[in-house]
Amino acid sequence: MSKEDFLEFEGVVTELLPEGRYRVKLDNDHMVLAYTAGRMKRNKIRTLVGDRVTVEMTPYDLSKARITFRHKAEGPGPGVPRTPFVRRR
Questions:
Q1: Is pLDDT at 67 greater than 70 in this prediction?
Q2: Reduced to 3 states, what is the DSSP secondary structure of residue 39?
Q3: Alpha-carbon distance 19 to 34, whole Å?
Q4: Alpha-carbon distance 21 to 64, whole Å?
Q5: Could you tell me which of 66, 48, 53 has the C-alpha nearest to residue 25?
Q6: Which pLDDT belongs to residue 57?
Q7: The CATH number, out of the four listed (3.90.870.10, 1.10.10.60, 3.40.50.300, 2.40.50.140), of the domain defined by the range 7-70
Q8: Which residues of 29-48 are buried (b: 16+ CB within 10 A; e: fewer)?
Q9: Pairing of strands 31-36, 64-70
Q10: Residue 11 has pLDDT above 70, yes or no
Q11: What is the pTM of this model?
Q12: Tell me, what's the pLDDT at 83?
């Protein structure tokens, strides 16, 4: 494994911490301290408790990670069509 290689895992955000940090529980039941990647900050992607995320970490320190992707929530979201507006006379 070279120096530039990262390990990617999926997990769920369990806690919001100060200074833009998150506690993430990975699918293999490990807890890591994660921060938001610069591209997510630039595009103002918000991450909340319960969001499913993809994190990447270096093989040298498996307790810290960087959140690189927030998966879309399942179920109806803000783009759900509403009932049509009926104009009354």
A1: yes
A2: helix
A3: 11
A4: 10
A5: 53
A6: 93
A7: 2.40.50.140
A8: eeebebbbeeebeeeeeebe
A9: parallel
A10: yes
A11: 0.74
A12: 55
Highest mean pLDDT among 3-7, 41-45, 76-80: 41-45
CA-based nearest residue to 35, from 60, 16, 52? 16
* Distance separating alpha carbons of residues 18 and 59, to the nearest angstrom: 25
Which amino acid is residue 9, in one-letter code? F
CB 35 within 8 A of CB 22: yes
- Out of 21-25, 47-51, 85-89, the most confident range is 21-25
Which helix (H) or strand (E) is 40 found in, with range? helix 38-42
